[in-house]
Amino acid sequence: MSSPSSSSSSASSASSASALVDAAKKRKASLFDFEPEVLLADVQNAVDAYIDDASDALETALIEECGAAGDAEKSEAIRDGTDELNAALTQKFGKQFAILGAYAQRNIFHVDDDLRVPHSAAGGAEDGALPTAEEEAALDKELAEWNLRLRQGRQEEKALRSKDERIKALQELFETHKEDISQLKVWCMWCSTCSAERQ
Predict the structure, then answer these.
(1) What does pTM read for this prediction?
(2) Is 99 part of a structural domain of the chain?
(3) 80 & 165 share domain
């Protein structure tokens, strides 16, 4: 028989462990904006529903293919077979998903105790809190500016590549006909005399 002090001690330990679990869940929810446990449960439920739908579709197709629509014995045998397949698939997936869920909790959704949401040095939401609407708007604006710079950079790169290709083509043309060239004229677009001569 345990003493009152050991009982209160184990109750205190259980309470502390529960508080730590609750704190970890809140921290995950603030970082991920969703509860990982709920997401994993939703995925498992969705796959279970897909298995049920697939089993029903297979049962219907087999009854039609085997001409068992009017034969109660054949229909029952097909139904038993697809139910057995459904149970086996659900059990197999459940075991494998339990492994995936444990891995995800340990490696994908694990949040260290000292991890906090980073914010700008200019100040903003309290450490560990979600960004405010103003901070999100500023980030969206900054992202739009970077996207614009990226598009401009790509356009400049494309123009430079096109110029490079033209220069290479001229070099190849020159190398091919350099023995035949006696005089090479170069016109400048800004020179009025050159423009007049080109006409």
Answers:
(1) 0.45
(2) yes
(3) no
